[in-house]
Predict the structure.
Amino acid sequence: MDDRATSKSSAWNTPEFRADLAFQKLTEEMVVRMRAYGREESFPANAVLITHGQRKIDLLVVLEGEVHASLPAGNGEAKVFARQQRFGFLGELNLLTSQGSLLEARTATESLLLRISRDELQHLMRSEGDIANLLASAAVWRRIGIIGEETGGVTLLGRGGAVKTVELQRFLIRNSYPHRLVEVPGSEVPATDVSFDGSAQIPKERLPAVTVCDGRTLYQPTIAELADELGITELPDPGRIYDVAVVGAGPAGLAAAVYAASEGLCTIVIEGIAPGGQAGTSSRIENYLGFPTGISGQRLASRAHLQALKFGVQFAISRQVVTAEQVAGIHKLTLAGGIPVCSRAVVVASGAQYRKLSVENYTEYENRGIYYAATSMEGLLCRDNEVIVVGGGNSAGQAAVFLSGIAKHVHYIIRGKSLATTMSQYLISRIESSSHITLYTGSEIVGVEGDKGLEWVTWANRRTGETTRMRIGSVFVMIGAEPNSGWLYGTVKLDRKGFVLTGVSEGFNGTPYATSVPGMFAVGDVRSASVKRVASAVGEGSVVISDVHRYLADHRNAFPAESNSTLAALRLANAAGL
Ligand SMILES: Cc1cc2nc3c(=O)[nH]c(=O)nc-3n(C[C@H](O)[C@H](O)[C@H](O)COP(=O)(O)OP(=O)(O)OC[C@H]3O[C@@H](n4cnc5c(N)ncnc54)[C@H](O)[C@@H]3O)c2cc1C
């Protein structure tokens, strides 16, 4: 619909809707090239072309006539979202994913359309770069438009602030899935049942609940159930051996996926939660090259996800890999629920998690006063303010010394009795001699508060119970990171903290990212001795694909032949008792 007013979607932190980009038309020359991928079909007026919830839709280009795509508007009514005429096309983000259609499409007049099947669309996206860019850009802007409408997608009903409701909403937001939240405040839950729009009665003990586009309600769905229902998860094809399986869709995994698929490798990404990883939880990444005013982690992740989809990467989202093994040269990953994925190579990009403090409301202040790194960027945020550093290791000590030159005062909190066993002596001396640092041993933070960001912090002496509450805007938590490598125990060599050992120095296969298992590479935060930053994760994810190519070329004859891949995969699964 070319003449739409822009719709605002600020709750999502999405950009202002751009109808001009969402409803760009194909050129005549583009359509001439596209004809080679599809076939013409004629329809009478009012013919249904796409139904709500329909998965894996074909690309439909209008050659003659007019088609309308509508969103449900409540009470069985529909609201026209787009009117497409000559060289307009149907579909939005679901053109590139297996998500069910949010829109219903019908012909408004007798129409002639060009239908391009899903498989052919993949070929087209790989071969016709300019068309692929136009389709991908329109797809994402249309999704932004639908999010702005707030009637498409699903309705989430839950108690305000309840952990399960917040988890489901976070999952929908991180996957850019349109939804409307009907909040039932915790303190005001009615004695009787609550309802959607006064119709279906939902017992409050069955909240949170989600109504999907066909009116069905899922009660207390798990993330995986919701992801499957909405088509956010594209489950792996059990009859296929992928060239490369990437585990984790943080910056490292997304970069690996983009490079692998753009270089022609059949690629699947398995992600336990949502694309973006730790970076996806950062409200503003200020030090990533090319974004002088910073970029939200979520936006960076959405862009990278789209880029990967454009190149045909398959995403199995909300599925953890639970085990990995190699059988007859082929890697077999088992996902939660026992789903097998077979691939010739594996890129481990499952990242790490900073250890967090166990304090109420803690996550509310992450990146809004609670930080895990003390670089000059964070330093700017606490100039002339009082700050807290937590942790007894060298990184915490360095942060305390660094910040003591910037902040008004550093309150340095450790749980242990002294720094002697955990920190280098030179740092201990500097800390002890600084009039800008006060050390609190045997202590821990017990409270964090603030409206717009962190404002007040309370800490307690563990022995005496004495508490101190002080106005503090920044807390630096440096108590180490835990690698997400539990699924690799017993498979690859890990260092003593559980990070994956890689590289020539470990004697593995001549590349910096090779692990102890042939054909399995590790990149990003999960890799032992890696630099824990977005840029280095992206760099490693991009570079590792050349190692994967080399490995695949060297082992070409060792793999089952392409034409037998289905049988081989099935044999493998059988051999593994699946
Ligand atoms: C709040 C915060 C702010 C930050 N800010 C900055 C910053 O401003 N600048 C900067 O350079 N760095 C920043 N960092 C660090 C940066 O985000 C990380 O270094 C980077 O994200 C690492 O990328 P990665 O892909 O290696 O791992 P991750 O980002 O950790 O991604 C790993 C992914 O793997 C998935 N996964 C884990 N296990 C499994 C499994 N078994 N199966 C399937 N999937 C799995 C996880 O769900 C996750 O999505 C920040 C980190 C945090 C937490």
User: Anything to note?
Assistant: Residues 168 and 223 are 7 Å apart (CA to CA).
